[in-house]
């Protein structure tokens, strides 16, 4: 790995995590790359395509530290993650899983193995099962995080520094529909499939540990950011339902209350990145249920409808898709739409060359009025954010039905959970976290088992105060260094909030939480 690769990864760091993430060419596509297996071969869910998984990269702790120290971005990251204790060997795993219709497919993952003389890097190590954020890039591959230009470089670097370099084994799936997966779509926020995909990656990875001199301590810590926060929670739910051991989980900035977020979108509170998220959702949920639309033109304006169901993920960079008119960058709804934005600052999502038809917006908004879900009230109330039956509703519109079915306010964790985000997040509304945590509490989850960290809550003094202070400083520094008026500086913070500013501090909170659980014998 050369210095320019690390610098490129740092420069793009968490921008690839969630909001409008991804893009880039190369990679992707292709089959599993093996012949027909012998009759006795293990070819079911969680089986390994190649064992041992190939080595993708290997760095000593000193090499990794030197690369991070080479520029200002790396030095800033080191302030959050701490100096690397361990070297990192990254393995590239291919495994078998299922798609959104229970069809057999393959997927890939990174396995990051700590090494070195420090006691933290040897012997039996705890496993972090990490779920990545939304990306439009079909060739996204966490195992190639050391490669300049790889869409996963920024997120992979952050995860490597936060966990692998501190002595955790990391298993980080790329998900079905990405990299070498033969699935022609991605089951985006399909809770059942994404939970199973994570379990299958972990199952396969554990089958390879003995062949790569890895000892699993048996502790399983599940985390992820943005889409990955949702996927981490879905994986915890799946493992609990099937009797598999989980030590703790930390779903971060998670759209776990996806029914709430969908209803808010149709009522005038869209998210930054909605013109990417909605097509991913409709394509995924159409594969899952078959009734989200009769044709794509039911939802989308004619200039986008043809091919939008197969557009994402793509080998074409998202910026090029915007430039070529395949998607609008911001205009989700038409100018003058009814209902309109709930506040003037959201008017940027209403304009010319919009994505979603007024007729569909009318249909969805009318369904919300006729068939409201008690947990999705807008404006929110204390009761709506803490009801034991948030999904006690019967939507008629296919998109809302799918959102309700994939909402994660339908189970109760029995192991410790930390949720983290920022109250001013423009991409994943923090009310998703508040509503999910409120549901868990209303169902009787003990206070000691559920921790919620709002990075904006500087009035609270606790184990996460340093993360909040660091986040506040990062926002202030970005504003000070951004050119233009006060409004321009505020806009820079808004654009960077979800994808760049919050992730390191939520991940640092997750690591501290995991350390506490492990120290307590969890």
TrEMBL record:
Residues 160-253 form the Peptidase S9 prolyl oligopeptidase catalytic domain. It comes from the Bacteria. Residues 1-18 form the signal peptide. It comes from Variovorax paradoxus. Residues 31-53 are annotated as: Disordered. GO terms for molecular function: serine-type peptidase activity; triacylglycerol lipase activity. InterPro entries: AB_hydrolase_fold (IPR029058), Lipase_secreted (IPR005152), Peptidase_S9_cat (IPR001375). Pfam families: Peptidase_S9 (PF00326). GO terms for biological process: lipid catabolic process; proteolysis. This is Prolyl oligopeptidase family serine peptidase.
